[in-house]
Amino acid sequence: MLLRFKSWRVFAPWNKSTVPSELTSFEAAYQLTGKIISKSSQSEIFAYQHADKTFFVKRYFRTKGLASWFGWSRFDLESNNQQWFNQVGVSAARVVAIGKQGLLFKTFKGVLVTEGIANSQELVEIAKQSPELFRNKAWADTVIFQLAETIATIHQARFCHNDLHWRNILIQQSAEQSEPKVFLIDCPSGKKWTWPLLNYRKLKDLASLDKLAPNYLTRTQRLRFFMHYRGISELTLSDKLIIRAVIEHKRNRVKRKSK
Q1: pLDDT (tens digit, 9 = 90+) per residue, 71-99?
Q2: SS3 5
Q3: Are 200 and 150 in the same domain?
Q4: How far apart are the C-alpha atoms of 139 and 137, rounded to whole Å?
Q5: Could you tell me the pTM of the whole model?
Q6: Number of domains comprising the chain
Q7: Are the CB atoms for 94 and 86 separated by under 8 Å?
Q8: Are residues 195 and 127 part of one domain?
């Protein structure tokens, strides 16, 4: 039927070389299996190993909501966001391939394949397993400044992550690297906003990011992050109001969850 559609695209540099046969079509990629890393009501993620390369496959087996009938499914948002990160130079997993299947503007199934980031770990896992790293000034400052620059870049473009928790931040570190590198992952809820909702969404990002920070970072480190994010050398009244709003946002969120 002409109303039905199916698409599959392999991105550079993989489209200019031989990719695994499992990544040459939507059908093949959708049938891939692996140990599930995480699962929701709409999707699941697993790692796929080929030779010495690791790929992460996020398979959407359904999409929900009225917006999904107008090309704004969770899959479409996440795929577009991941491509946008790559295009504007935000450190994020590189997109290898994207494919979907649907009817009219509605996506029913989708596959997003990204390149694995070697020697990386979620920031929340580092906090649990190696909390002493946060007391290493060189390591902590590098992570703080990189993260501040990344968030400033997307916010200046009016884009908000909308789920900016430590589980969605990867830190790459290996013996060959002189310093850690920050990557953003898993962004199906991010989008660009305009006034008057933009400022609220920025506050939500900052509050989510600061949720665990008091447990591992000093007040000076958290303030250093904020000033680097704002690109300032000293706080103004406007900056102080933003900090208060972030703290208030966190406090209200805790109250709502406790009810």
Answers
A1: 889 999 999 999 999 999 999 999 999 99
A2: strand
A3: yes
A4: 6
A5: 0.90
A6: 2
A7: yes
A8: yes
